[in-house]
Amino acid sequence: MSRKVARHKGNLSNTLDVPVGNACSIRETKTRADDEVFELRAHHLLCAICAAAGAERPPCGTVVTDAIREAIRSHPFIQLKLTADLDVVRSHYLDIYSECHARLPKDFLSRRADYANRAKDLEVLCRLDIRPNTVHPAIDVLRLLFLKVESLKGICYQDFELSQDWPMCEYAQTDYYRQTREKGGQKCYSLDACWKLGEDLLGCGPYSLLPIRTKEEVGRAKVESRKRIEQADRLFIRPHHLMCLMCHYGSGDLEQPLDVDNLHEILVKMRHNPDIPVTLNEGCCMVCDPCPAYDPDKHICLWIYTRDQLKDLRVLQKLGLRPGDTVRARELISLLTGRIETAAEICGPGVFVRESYVWAPCSSAEAGHYEKARSVGLFDS
Known about the structure:
This protein is mainly alpha-helical. It has helices at 23-26, 44-53, 62-74, 93-97, 108-112, 115-128, 138-148, 176-184, 191-197, 215-231, 241-251, 263-272, 305-319, 329-339, 344-347, 369-376; strands at 37-41, 79-83, 134-137, 235-237, 277-280, 294-295, 300-301, 326-328. α2 crosses α8 (176-184), α11 (241-251) crosses α12 (263-272) and α11 crosses α16.
């Protein structure tokens, strides 16, 4: 049996007295070229990392590595097209080894002679598990690269003696890449570590090329966004953060706010004012401002944006609501706990892919925190 929910539509001017005209003063938008495609040979990404770590004469030249570094540093969401020359093998062997080369591309011989670099391109793409000549956001490529590739062994150097026909980069066995990766370690993938260390992680792992929010920036964002929540007479929350809110409450660790987000502040606000209107925003919300993974210029979660958007829509579908709908907090949580029995329904391995980087399940989906909060009740304890 369907349940009707008292809700407002998403048009702010028709619901609550929110100064819509001032919305842009909260977050200045900047024009970025993140939707442009930057084309590079796959192994040149490694050259750029080594150059950032101290390789002064990368084989592809500093003009190439500087361009890669500048593009990614300026636009971490820029679309990278990682190329490898697959078409060189499409020439028929009879055309290659006969006297008549008329049907061969004019640059065929020089392209074929580039076999050593072509092997590097394909080795990189193999380890990333992506097809050559496809397009991916730079931040995804770099985070995935440093997760999957431990060193340059098997790409730029081998554990056996190479013939003169397979020349090796002079920096290969120095392995600046491995040094960069080990310097960062798992800290580069921890929100807490990124919040506490900020710019100290520059030069470590993916942050050898990627920018990172500074300690001052996230600290200031925390103070400002917390004040905004305290003063708000309306909350803006992305739908799946309702699940996170419940997990935070169910974890029982409610004494101190979290540095990396505003879940605690939203929870306190809702418990103190159960009738406060909550607008469900498909995308980043009041929770996100101090998070190291949040890009305030693009207003996007750089780390897990695709997975989170799907979770938003799953929650909305379960609740029978739409993006932009507004519901009172108590009623919204009642609807959530009535329609969604377990966190795994939205975030678990049964609805995501364990081995995937892009579509991995939430690490706490099976911890039982959501279910505990659901049984206790957000407003009843």
